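User: two proteins, same treatment. go.

Assistant:
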Amino acid sequence: MKRIFIAFISLVTLFSCENKSTPTIYPSKIGVDPAYADLVKKDKPIESIDLSEKKLKNKKVVKVSKNNTLKPVENIDKIVALSADNTTDILTVSYGKASKEITKNAGQTNTFTFNSDSAKKVWIKISAQDTLANIRINEVKGPIDSIHGGPFGKETTFVLPSRGEYKFSISEKPTNPKPYAGKYKVELKLLWK
């Protein structure tokens, strides 16, 4: 019985071993493939664009500058400075959670403070009755000036690298022309993982 088993294992081993060779990678040609040579030309003149209504019906038009350079896009979604009528509320954390309902005026920022002694992260969510309300978590600041972040959306998880008192502000997006005025709810959870 042992001999049959050994013979079987030997046959399986012999037939399962295939001559798998390592794939060979050959070096590519130096230079540009002739099929793509026209794409590499740097001083290629801009072709005239036919702007007739018939051709623009289902096509998107991209305007190109004369010198063919790309300009960096400025990030217009920036942190909003605190308003003159800014309110500051203290969130009392109980069993790792806190919540508060507040009424906001148009153009007003609201600041909330909370104390974190041992948590590693904080989860913050704001919700209004109108789901499309123009409000967001504007900025989170820590006990040290170097700890800050933002802007965020309506929900975020922020890492708390040190112990102490943290502040976060709620405001409108500056890119949205319609400021929000009304009630909204702030929820906060401290996380230890």
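Protein 2:
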Amino acid sequence: MNYSRMTKSTVCALALAITLPVLADNNWYTCKEKQQQIEKQLQYARANENQNQINRLTSQKTDLAQNCTNEVLRQKYIQKIDKLNNKVNETQHKLAKAQSKGNNANVENLQNKLNENKIKLQQAKQNFARFEQAAKQ
């Protein structure tokens, strides 16, 4: 089949939309969730008698207990969303400029970039909403 470039771009954007949530699962958790994750890894390391991993995880657990707050994590989510909003706005501006100049090759590239940035922004917003819900518990 002979797909147009726009169709290929749409397929790529959809594939990215499907894979981003899977990749994003290991981003940030609430402090409590991070602690639970480290505890699971510690249990596994102990079961396998992996002393290097036990030492590393014990250090991470101590650091987490001393330094992790959900407010800090909340600020990281907000910063990420702000950064992605800026990327979307910047790309939209560049796209409009390329369209006005009639630069079709650049328009297509910028449209793809815009689609990817919008998907990333949507995922960041979903992650933040999930974080907010988990932080309430």
